[in-house]
Amino acid sequence: MAMNPALFAKTSPRPARWTVRSVDRVREAAIAAHLGIHPAVARVLAARDWTESEDDAEFLNPRLASLRDPFELADMQTAVDRTVHAIRHHEKIGVFGDYDVDGICSTALMLLVLRRLGAEPVHFIPHRVLDGYGMSIERVEELAHAGVRLLITVDTGITAVDEIRRAHELGMDVVVTDHHLPEGGLPDAVAIVNPNRPDAPYDGASLCGTGVAFKFAHALLKCAGEAAESARAFLRGLLDLVALATIADVVPLVGENRILVHHGLQCLSRTRRPGLRALLAESKLSGTALNPHHVGFVIGPRLNAAGRTDHAGTALDLLLTESANEATVLANKLSALNRQRRSEEASIVDDAVAQAESQLASGLDSILVVAGLDYHLGVVGIVASRLVERFHRPAIVLRIDPERAKGSARSIPGFDIHEALSACAPHLLTFGGHAMAAGLQVAPEHLDDFRAAINDHARPLFEQRDLSPEILVDAPIDGTEITWEFYHDLQRLQPFGEQNAAPLFLLGGARPVGAPRVVGTNHLKVALRSAGSTFPAIGFRLGHLLTLCESQSHSVDVVFRPTENTWQGRTDIQLELQDMRPAAV
């Protein structure tokens, strides 16, 4: 999600710890020779423990042919057989989705493949405020009364034990496709296709909901008699949806996800979907070679805004429309909703930060739990992420209603927030999610008890842990190594994202030159000279470091990631600064 830099401009961030990965220079040289890449890029791979056992052709050139057989997922054959039977016997099929980017994309993907195979499916996406997360007995009953005989869930369903039991009572079969963790026993569905099934894990894959739906689509086409080349072309055309969801859902970009996103971003850059073309145009990204940053910070928030402030159906309509005119209208509406979402977010953040600072002042809380009567449910998850960024500790943000306080939790690496909620289950009405993010509900009168309980659970885990922000630096680099050859070889490690972060480099002893200044909303603009070369640099939200650059008789150490910057027809390698210190002696 896009961050508003002004949200935290009132206070300077806490100083970060720099942790520089250890580098085996022998391994660096071996990898550079083996892969034929720049030594500084090989240095990153060596620091990240890359080995030749990882097929270099696969790593640098991910191939769709290397995707695993979808039938390796448990229950896939049963799910396919039941769906093919429904299509051939003209049973009414329903698709039950979710309101975030992953839920919207998986719903669109499932509708497209079912329509291609001759079905005329109906669908339902819950309203975040009116319906809440996941399936409900009321909506299941409505679908059954509408004649649905096969209900396929996407990005949801793994915890819907009671709802699926009710579906069976009404004569409706359910096929679950999901990726979330179960909270207890599995529902009694006809088939459960989920890589995170504890009884049949799909090892090594962290697919999002749309990734699971894509595997289901692949399996369906294999069994439905579609010509192989036609099926492959159709599946390739779905990869824009898969890439959008995989990046937006922040699942690891390794293994199959790396392959899907690599090809999906190419598909998205040249998408034929009128809605996505209009959204790219509205976002000024038409003709751009898209990367995960564009999805995570520009496109994804616009799609998410529909479910946060209105209804996710608007985003789904955009993905499915075949009308260029309608696409333009919908893209403009999503952008307007996103501006509304940002405004609502900003007003809540101020209050949430004040509550968090008060809790931290007590010295007792390791996990922030803040709540408000007027917090918009559509943005509480974003606000929780902002608190994590600001205070570098897990955060829970809740909206208080008369009967329940409902909201979202976000965590930091190394702390399983889902496990923490499980430990506090007696204080909760409901909860669900995974290690880094979760949703929960608690009775308002139990809110203080819950806050105390989750902090009691976390305190022993955090007593020996430094909670100041940490910057993990992949490798030191010399100014002579920052060349276009280095930059282009570095891009071969794309796509960057969860568990394959864009590499960070440490440049020591650089000298600020020219006229350093603060631009925009607290961004540091400076030129740095090292080893006879001068590099433009930008530090977003690092305006408080200007004083380090103004005394140009002193050198600085900087942590940065390299980017491209074009100005007045000239393109340079720009250092995107993450932090800066006086140079080490």
Structure commentary:
Among the domains are: 5-22 and 474-582, OB fold (Dihydrolipoamide Acetyltransferase, E2P), CATH 2.40.50.460; 65-239, inorganic pyrophosphatase (n-terminal core), CATH 3.90.1640.30; 362-462, Roll (Diaminopimelate Epimerase, Chain A, domain 1), CATH 3.10.310. With 585 residues, it is α/β, with parallel strands linked by helices. Helix content is 41%, strand content 19%. It contains 20 helices and 18 strands. Residues 1-12 have low confidence and may be disordered. It is globular. The strands form four sheets. Strands 3-2-4-5-6 form a five-stranded parallel sheet, with helices on both faces.
Give the arrangement of secondary structure elements:
Elements: E1 17-20, H1 25-35, H2 39-47, H3 56-60, H4 76-88, E2 93-96, H5 101-116, E3 122-124, H6 137-145, E4 150-154, H7 161-169, E5 173-177, E6 191-193, H8 209-223, H9 228-236, H10 239-248, H11 255-269, H12 274-282, H13 292-309, H14 313-320, H15 324-361, E7 368-372, H16 380-391, E8 395-400, E9 405-410, H17 417-423, E10 430-433, E11 437-442, H18 447-462, E12 470-473, E13 475-477, H19 484-491, E14 505-519, E15 523-530, E16 533-539, H20 546-550, E17 556-567, E18 570-582
Helix pairs in contact: 1-2, 4-8, 5-8, 5-10, 5-14, 6-7, 8-10, 10-11, 10-13, 12-15, 13-15, 14-15, 15-16
Main features:
585 residues, alpha/beta, OB fold (Dihydrolipoamide Acetyltransferase, E2P), inorganic pyrophosphatase (n-terminal core), Diaminopimelate Epimerase, Chain A, domain 1, 5-stranded parallel β-sheet, globular, disordered N terminus
